[in-house]
């Protein structure tokens, strides 16, 4: 470009007189340099544009790089938070499980304490409302016992017990054997299987864990069968038609905490 300018400057002093023509000529001659000038400008502009574009692209690229790097960092951060949250969540679930286990254990312990306390109250007052057995039934350990007051045949007694969700008494451990013996009961039907023949009397304790308690189904009518009954410490067999008392037993329900602790305020007063 500077070359062109000097060329024009040089021409000017040479043809001062024929300024007009020169000017015209110059104009004419200059036509080609002018067009080359324009294309040079265009090239320049294009170059500048291209460079600008390149720079822009570069900036964009670096911006993209920076932002994507930032995004990656954010993603990593989020991933970490996610992992932490999952960790915290499983921790919470663990704590929750432990807590519900503790609550279960506590309520189990509370139930045991309540039952023991209710046993104490029952020892002093056989009709205490904390007793987990129906009215008139006796409570021992976790079972309830009813001594019937009307005399019936063994079959009828059996039906009477099952009508109350109970069964004729079976002795399956020393504790219940001792409890029943302490009651000194005479002529009470037991839940022994009816037999085809009578047999000599047996001590109640000798029948613990005996298969005689498994009641066999039989087609024989009652009057041909012999049934076992309690007589003090012993067991005898008699015709099943005989009418005597009986002992029913059923599992005790859970001791109600409210019924047991209703005593406490009275004792504090
Ligand atoms: C995870 O729990 C810890 C403490 O137990 C707490 O400091 C942290 O903020 C928790 N993380 C999230 C993501 O909540
Ligand atoms: C849950 O309880 C067990 C023992 O009962 C204990 O070893 C464990 O650390 C407890 N976990 C939490 C998260 O408290
Ligand atoms: C709950 O009791 C059981 C045994 O009865 C025990 O194995 C368990 O660790 C107890 N759990 C808690 C949380 O105390
Ligand atoms: C003995 O048997 C009775 C009746 O089945 C039951 O309620 C009681 O829990 C038992 N006692 C023991 C110590 O096993
Ligand atoms: C016997 O138990 C059944 C359900 O098991 C109950 O519906 C019924 O009321 C009970 N009967 C007595 C007399 O307790
Ligand atoms: C019940 O039947 C079994 C075999 O069926 C027998 O071994 C057992 O002695 C019977 N029990 C009584 C009390 O008859
Ligand atoms: C009981 O008697 C019926 C018919 O009255 C018979 O079908 C059944 O087999 C008998 N059961 C036994 C155990 O004898």
Automatic annotation (TrEMBL):
Residues 68-95 form a coiled coil. Residues 140-249 form the C-type lectin domain. The keyword Transmembrane helix applies. CDD domains: CLECT_NK_receptors_like. Its main location: membrane. GO terms for cellular component: plasma membrane. It is a single-pass type II membrane protein. Keywords: Cell membrane, Coiled coil, Disulfide bond, Glycoprotein, Lectin, Membrane, Phosphoprotein, Receptor, Signal-anchor, Transmembrane, Transmembrane helix. It comes from the Eukaryota. The keyword Phosphoprotein applies. One of its GO terms (molecular function) is carbohydrate binding. This is C-type lectin domain family 12 member A. It comes from Erinaceus europaeus (Western European hedgehog). The gene is CLEC12A.
